[in-house]
């Protein structure tokens, strides 16, 4: 049961004392609903069984957000329909739904963006409404129009608001008219690379080039000079066309070293609108969020209210009705500037649910049916602190996270811990493919204070078991324990500033190294004892305690050694540690050898490192979009050789030295794996 699903309990056998408690919760004000039952009631209001909404909802999405919507629908007694591609036929969201319809093959253009197939699924199943989740068709005005034409409710804003806010050029003009602070820039469409250079020179570097119809960090580039502007124009327009079917671009002043803080809004069809406080989203890589929290450590009540009121002004200006998010850039002096409005449910919505007690999916469904908001602005609390980490199938040691693919051979979410929520759409055995976003889950922790929420997040990351794909948990753990993050001294440049040479993993101090080695040695001995047949090993220990001597220093390791479990809670020199036993292909890792094996290992030849200056290998699985060279060409250092697209992001691969091209092993349209040879240089 997820942490916010107390409404489901009414359908089961409930003790009379708990029934009285549930009734008290239902009749209590919103502020008091967040902590009535420790694990279940802190993230959601309780829907009224007398409030009729829809009989059946189709979810036009996949993965964790489809699962998230289905959970609330079940709570509200609504039947659900899942759509899926052929490769997603056994996905979790398909199994959770009451019905499922295949809408095409794996590529998104042939399935989750296939409007004709999804409309057919709506007709066949008799769905009365569609929840689009985020991404895919969630901000597509044509899809909303087609639904309206057939009398099917779109669980989101109307087409006017989607059009107005989905176009960054138009949205900026509307924001100005609504007296919302905006970033200086060019308010028209940039048509050519040379025009982009001219405009950038007029605005003054640095500038941000971004897709007019974009979002999610796609189609965005920062340019510091003319050449970067030309390159940024090319890549942004290509990504925009690929992701949104719209290659129009705009240019505005880049606010250097800002915070990214957004306001959640909620509005109905009767002119009522609320702001549900802020979310701090400054920890990003490649303009995509990695860690979010609510509230922000930076905002004071005056700034929070000013941002909230401007967000509501904008929502009312376009007659907005549903949940939406107004994003701002905030400088060091707390000046804030409108960035964009996302006319959909945001990825990071759970942390707002944690601190307000509102189930945002439920509220979207109510609004789509025509009900008025249940609350006023004075009802909206900031109750505690919530943090979200986006857990991705990515290699954090490559550009803070390049996509990884594979099958989850072992998967265990840390739901045994208190006040931990995991929004996921995968399970053990699920495949992470090149076709879709590499997100594994959203890991959310909640506490009365920020320190409490951070402590729970650290424990949750340590207890999260993911095998079969490379993941970014090492980076997430480093971020949330870094002194700068703990102190709240962050900006959108946090990662490149803290790790200027890239993320290299956690650097162990001498004591920590000894503790790790001692723990590994104890596990090795335990495994030897379990598998020993004719050998005799004498170990002196008291109960579950082991004493290990390393380099003259003694390390005491205490704990029950359950070698069948992927998680091993140990106490090392009096400090609680959570160890995960991984196979040796994971890096970094500790190898424990017998004395004889260690002696023989010294004679093993070391594998010679590859000369990466003369070859170019794909750093990630993806599709070759362009090859810019041919055999015999001479390339300069830094010159583009080819472009790889992975999860709708285009990555330019360049030469690290001046050389002649010896051979080319790829061509546009080909699918390549991580480490595949692309180009050889002489």
From TrEMBL:
GO terms for molecular function: ATP binding; biotin binding; metal ion binding; propionyl-CoA carboxylase activity. It is an enzyme of class 6 (ligase). This is Propionyl-CoA carboxylase alpha chain, mitochondrial. Residues 53-500 form the Biotin carboxylation domain. It comes from Astatotilapia calliptera (Eastern happy). It comes from the Eukaryota. PROSITE patterns: ATP_GRASP, BC, BIOTIN, BIOTINYL_LIPOYL, CPSASE_1, CPSASE_2. One of its GO terms (biological process) is lipid catabolic process. Its cofactor is biotin.
